[in-house]
Amino acid sequence: MVISQPTIRDTIVTFFRRKFTFLLIFGGVCLAGALYLLVTTPLYLSTAALVVRFDQHTVPNIDNTQPTLQPLGSNERREIIYSDADILRSPDLLHRTIKEVGLERLYPTIASNGHGAARQDDEALKAFNADLVVDVGLQSDVINLSFLNPVPQVAHDTVQALLTQFSAQEANVYANPQLKFTEQEAQQQRDKLTTAQQALSQFKSGHQISDFDQQIKELIKQRVDVASRLNTAQGRVSDAEQREAALKELLGAVPQTVTTSAAGEQYRGVDEVQGQIAALKAKRDQMESTYRPGSPVFNQLNASLSSLEASAAASNHDARSRGMTQTNLVYENIKTDLLRATAEAQGAREPAQLLATQLGQVNQEISDLEAQQSHYDDLRRNVSIEDAAYRSLAIRLAEARVEANRNAEKISAAAVIADPSMPEQPARPRRKVVAFATVLAALILACGGVLALDAFDDRLRSARDVTQVLRVPVLATFVKDT
What we know:
- By secondary structure, the chain is α+β, with helices and mostly antiparallel strands.
- The chain starts with 7 loop residues before the first helix and ends in a 12-residue tail after the last helix.
- The protein has helices at about 10-15, 20-40, 75-90, 90-100, 105, 110, 115-130, 150-175, 175-205, 210-255, 270-285, 295-320, 330-410, 430-455, 465-470, and strands at about 45-55, 130-135, 140-150, 255-260, 325, 415-420.
- It has a 4-stranded antiparallel β-sheet with strand order 2-3-1-6. The chain has a two-stranded antiparallel ribbon with strand order 4-5.
- It has 4 domains: about 1-40 and about 440-480, no CATH class; about 45-175, no CATH class; about 175-255 and about 330-410, Four Helix Bundle (Hemerythrin (Met), subunit A) (Up-down Bundle); about 260-315.
- α10 packs antiparallel against α13 (about 330-410) and α11 (about 270-285) packs antiparallel against α12.
- The chain has 15 helices and 6 strands.
């Protein structure tokens, strides 16, 4: 039997002959699509977008050794973008997102199925991966996120939580562990330096020390000044004591009282006799020009002179024998000078004693400072050591930060350019698309079903079929009598 290709007319005839089969298949598929649209829970789509930035940081070249950074190539940029997309799909990130939003809000069916926590987490993770779409543009640096959920607010909150967790995860992944360690070490060293500085400050405050070396210099200068003044005061004391001793010695050699001769009235008679003698002598001198020596007048005059001279000598002797004892003025003057010298010596001793006390206090302060100098030097040395260590760690911290910035030049940062949207209309199922696809599928299946049935049907239904199959003309036809 030879089978020929059906024509369009044959095909149309076949469809009309099997129109009930066509309608059955077409109606069944359309009914299935309608039931799908009625039964399926509507899902809302929340979307967001990230852009991956490159070469956005400026790194200071503090050590003048930083090489010039070359721009990243397109392959490197794509690798970084795909790495960020993989971070968004990482199980740990998704688990944290589910935990933040809440399993009861995201998938209440899974939360209430009674399975173990581990199994529920796995089922939730699978469902989350099915609802999450991370799309990386082929020619752009943008990463698009979308998430489906029956509740619009839950879809929005889930995308927002995913972005938050992504930022934290990216910072943790790209963080420089050496930088964190160096920061901790620098902070600890800074605390040690603060403790050492406080100990030194308390020591200086407790002992009233501002500048140790300067204070010792001032005390030494003060000691020299006090010692010089003390030597001067001691010299004055020594002079006063020597003068006092000399006056005491002189006072011991001078008698306290002296005997004085009669004076005034006691010598008046003697003075009168002396006056008469002088008058007689003057008269005798006058008489020598007129009288001869040895004359009775001269003899009488000489006799009177001799008598008066004897009387004057007797009166003078008598006046001297009647002299009196009185205080020695020299002794009194020396005694007055001695009292003055004693007072001066006593007055000179008091400043010398004060200066000696002051010198002792200065020497004691110097001794105390010298005794404390060892502890003070230890405190200063400790502060210097801690400060040097802190400076070294601070330099290392700055270098670590610069190195982190250099790494950041190559690692880029993702920034949100579109916040999570709040969906108002369901995104799934797409009713128009599903309806069109259902009709198209029903039409294809119906046509296919009709053609398949006709292909397996080998019955001859008309003279034309006989001619096509047997390749002989039809001689006669019979009509069925109804």
